[in-house]
Amino acid sequence: MSARLQRVLGYLGAVVVLLLGWQLLASVVGSPALPAPVDALTEFVRTFVPDLLPHLLTSAWRALAALTLGTVLAVPLGLYLGRSPRADAIVAPLIFLSYPVPKVVFLPVLLVLLGLGDLSKIGLIALIVFFQILVTSRDAARAIPAASVLSVRSLGAGRMQVFRHVVLPAALPEIFTALRIGTGTAVAVLFLAESIAGSQGLGYYIVDAWGRIAYNAMFAGILAMALLGVALYEVLDSLESRVCRWTKVGS
Amino acid sequence: MADLELRSVTHDYAGVGRDVRALFKLDLAVAHGEPVAVIGPSGCGKSTLLLLAAGMITPNVGEVLVAGSPVTGPRRTTALILQEYGLLPWKSVFHNAALGLEIRGVSRAEVQTRTFESLERVGLAEFAGSYPGELSGGMRQRLGLARALALDADLLLMDEPLSALDALTREDLQDLLLELWRVRGHASVLVTHSIEEAVFLGRRVVVLSPRPGTVAAIVDNPDMGERDYRGAPGFYELCAHVRSLLVQEGAVGRLAGTGGKG
Ligand SMILES: Nc1ncnc2c1ncn2[C@@H]1O[C@H](COP(=O)(O)OP(=O)(O)OP(=O)(O)O)[C@@H](O)[C@H]1O
Ligand SMILES: [Mg+2]
């Protein structure tokens, strides 16, 4: 059986288990706020193209843009700090002080500064992703064995070539792990940000349905949000196995 | 003219706790195309010696010259094969072997042909697409060698390239090293813990003193490279001689377990 098929079957199995659990819970609770999966799924299929899809696309775009932005800014800086003790001595205290601050508290500030649209949401999530990836890539760069760097330097590699041939590839697997964990946070924060302000995105859709006591629609939105999370995770996973092929050695 | 010359070299490392003197007033000259083996107690500064010769570090005192000019950094046609970790696990066998050429900015087509040639030489051509993690210990050592060969080096510096190999693989690769030297005639410095390896591959065997390393003795080995040298009486005599020199330096306890002749 191919690995891909196995994976698809695994997902199918998990979906069945989740649906059964959901069904069980729904019949035990017996509240309209927790509709049966059949009702939610019917609503999902019925409204997907006309209503849900535009919101899903908006949310997906925000999440993707934020993840990309945060990563693209954090990786070079993190790797640089990890390899440059001098710069690290200056910047590390700043990171250690600001890393534990929950960035989500800046949502109101960002809403005022960047408006209620895409920008504030992308900015907030990018900020969170940025710090996670920054810390991860800095630590990964510090952990690179000196001998790996030495062997490449002995071939005449300059600073940039050491980055390209050693530091970046050595840190990639850990950066991908951090990113995959980051997608969970990103989707959660996206929900929060969209539910608080604006009139677009799945967060808005869910909370709006909730306000209208349209529980089936609310759950259709929740399903779409879950789908978004899974899709992001999968994209990263397949990207990782393409870019970091050597990590599959021996497995 | 010596291809590699270390003139009264002293080198100290700034350690975390205290400074460590690795080498003290070490003199060594390696002639053009000459294979030299270096042997000595653990920690006596053998790796340091190679790093100096490769231009990776500069001596605190003294001079390092290659082909007559002072070494200031890595040189185009010096190849250094490190004790361990020389290979990059994220690069395929091909790209590991090609790394030196790629860093030197050699054209794509030339990288292709020279890399395949050298992989061919060490018998790894069919593994070009594999990763180092998929190779055996002996194959990894050969890959390290292939990278050096691709550079077309005239000075080959090797830091215990064959340690951690079983006896048969080891002899196999010693034969390969000898054959490569015959074909290409590069100067080489081979650091090893094995007395037999030193005598098999060194036209001169340099014995270093315990740290701080300095040259304790140099043993001439004119018959090195002759047919079936490993079985010749002269080979055993020389091994015994080197061994006695190492005993004088108090180094044999460490050597007993690492492939020295028992
Ligand atoms: N980067 C370093 N920082 C501080 N001290 C070092 C460093 N590298 C080596 N030394 C010290 O210098 C001395 C010589 O080290 P070197 O690695 O050259 O020894 P060696 O002869 O290659 O040993 P071995 O046979 O075990 O490989 C050692 O005592 C070691 O403690
Ligand atoms: Mg050493």
Structure report:
The complex is a heterodimer of chains A (251) and B (262). With 251 residues, chain A is mainly alpha-helical. Chain A has 2 domains: 1-30; 34-248, Orthogonal Bundle (MetI-like fold). Helices cover 82% and strands 0% of the residues of chain A. Chain A has 9 helices and no strands. In chain A, helix 8 runs antiparallel to helix 9. Chain A is globular. The two termini of chain A are 16 Å apart. The model of chain A has no long low-confidence stretch (mean pLDDT 93). Chain B starts with a strand and ends in a 7-residue tail after the last helix. In chain B, strand 7 (155-159), helix 5 and strand 8 (187-191) form a beta-alpha-beta unit. A 6-stranded mixed sheet of chain B has the order 6-7-8-3-9-10, with helices on both faces. In chain B, helix 2 (93-103) crosses helix 3 and helix 3 packs across helix 4 (137-150). At the A-B interface, helix 6 and helix 7 of A face helix 2 of B. The site of adenosine-5'-triphosphate (ATP) has 12 residues of chain B, from strand 2 and helix 1.
What count of helical segments of chain B does DSSP give?
8
Q: Main sheet of chain B, how many strands, which sense, barrel?
A: 6 strands, mixed
| Shape label of chain B | globular
* Discrete helix count of chain A: 9
- Helical content of chain B stands at 25-40%
**CATH-defined fold name of the largest domain in chain B:** Rossmann fold
Task: Supply the helix-strand structural class of chain A.
Answer: mainly alpha
* Named CATH architecture of the largest domain in chain B: 3-Layer(aba) Sandwich
Identify the CATH class of the largest domain in chain B: Alpha Beta
Q: Which structural class fits the helix and strand makeup of chain B?
A: alpha/beta
Report the count of strand segments of chain A: 0
How many structural domains in the coordinates of chain B?
2
Rounded to an integer, what's the Rg of chain B over CA atoms?
18 Å
CATH class of the largest domain in chain A: Mainly Alpha
N/C terminus separation of chain B: 38 Å
CATH superfamily of the largest domain in chain B: P-loop containing nucleotide triphosphate hydrolases
Low-confidence stretches of chain B: 255-262
Question: How are helices and strands ordered from N to C of chain A?
Answer: HHHHHHHHH
Percent strand of chain B equals: 15-25%
Strand content of chain A: under 5%
Shape of chain A: globular
